[in-house]
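Input structure tokens:
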């Protein structure tokens, strides 16, 4: 059997809209639509709480801005989202006048893409333990009834915890923490009963050289190590992405972009940004750099991304990519589609 490799990719622009200029936002895909929520254009100033939609199956990929319902999450940044069925879920984030972590006592927000409505899923037992409010954490789901929440920035320091939320039972349970150090801006993905975690920023340095794997059945962590030299594996980074992509029944992990050498200004500035794309062969446990050409988006970080299955049943990556341009606090303004032989698409505004 011929081995499958994701060695090349091309980029094509999807759409551009001033409304979508931002970073630190949430992005999820349901069917052929991309849903965008939250984020900031100016440092520490969250945009409003309306949902924006980009339709991939429409001839015109322009964005549609929906009216926010009376009940909706407050404006926030650093709150990524994930999906189960047609619902989009997010937890906490940073907002308010003091831009502190939003504490909602363990509640999870669920957005109905069919009805443009939000509901707050509060824990059934308010006295049971729940994760602290935080920002720049990572979240994923098993696609059925469980959400997984990891790491991030509470009011002080950083976290390395791992929690699972049963949507049907409305209950949180704390799982074994990931290998240290504690960090924010990490990336996580779910595939085949396992969680894959990499990268992040521990307050001093960007993390890299390790792909940590949590086996849900055995409640145990293991680690695949590699040289983060840009040759054997991706360089250390934070505020990037990690997605599981299936191609002809074989699954790869895709990571791309991110920040290296952060700015002394923290969230108000930008450090060294990366523009590379890598795939990880889960079976072979090896990284390969993807050739992407010279016409794609510029280097970036501080974005969210998701995967979508196209009309030909081929997986695609849809990344609502906003960045802090290297050396400034500005945001880019284009929208892109990222295509490879059998996987492909990515947004950037």
């Amino acid at each position: 059997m011929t081995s499958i490799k994701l060695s090349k990719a091309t980029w094509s622009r999807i759409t551009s809209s001033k409304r979508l200029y931002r970073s630190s936002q949430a992005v999820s895909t349901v069917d052929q639509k991309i849903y965008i929520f939250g984020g900031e254009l100016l440092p520490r100033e969250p945009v409003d709480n309306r949902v924006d939609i980009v339709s991939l199956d429409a001839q015109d990929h322009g964005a549609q801005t929906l009216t926010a319902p009376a009940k909706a999450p407050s404006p926030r940044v650093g709150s990524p989202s994930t999906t189960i069925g047609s619902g989009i879920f997010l937890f906490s984030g940073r907002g308010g006048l003091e831009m502190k972590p939003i504490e909602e006592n363990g509640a999870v927000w669920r957005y109905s893409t069919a009805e443009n409505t939000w509901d707050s899923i509060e824990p059934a037992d308010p006295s049971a333990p729940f994760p602290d409010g935080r920002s720049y954490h990572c979240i994923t789901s098993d696609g059925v009834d469980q959400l997984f929440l990891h790491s991030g920035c509470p009011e002080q320091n950083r976290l390395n915890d791992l929690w699972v939320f049963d949507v049907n039972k409305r209950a949180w349970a704390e799982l074994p923490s990931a290998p240290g150090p504690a960090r924010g801006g990490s990336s996580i993905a779910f595939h085949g009963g396992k969680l894959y975690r990499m990268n992040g920023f521990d307050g001093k340095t960007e993390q890299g050289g390790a792909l940590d794997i949590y086996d849900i059945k055995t409640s145990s962590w293991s680690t695949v190590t590699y040289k983060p030299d840009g040759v054997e594996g991706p360089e250390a980074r934070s505020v990037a992405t990690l997605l599981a992509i299936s191609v002809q029944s074989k699954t790869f992990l895709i990571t791309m972009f991110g920040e290296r050498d952060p700015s002394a200004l923290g969230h108000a500035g930008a450090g060294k940004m990366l523009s590379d794309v890598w795939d990880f062969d889960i079976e072979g446990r090896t990284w390969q750099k993807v050739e992407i050409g010279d016409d794609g988006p510029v280097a970036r970080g501080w974005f969210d991304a998701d995967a979508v299955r196209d009309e030909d049943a081929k997986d695609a990556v849809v990344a609502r990519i906003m960045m802090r341009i290297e050396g400034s606090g500005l945001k880019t303004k284009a929208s892109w589609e990222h295509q490879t032989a059998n996987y492909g698409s990515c947004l950037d505004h």
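The chain has one domain: 9-348. The longest strand covers residues 159-166.
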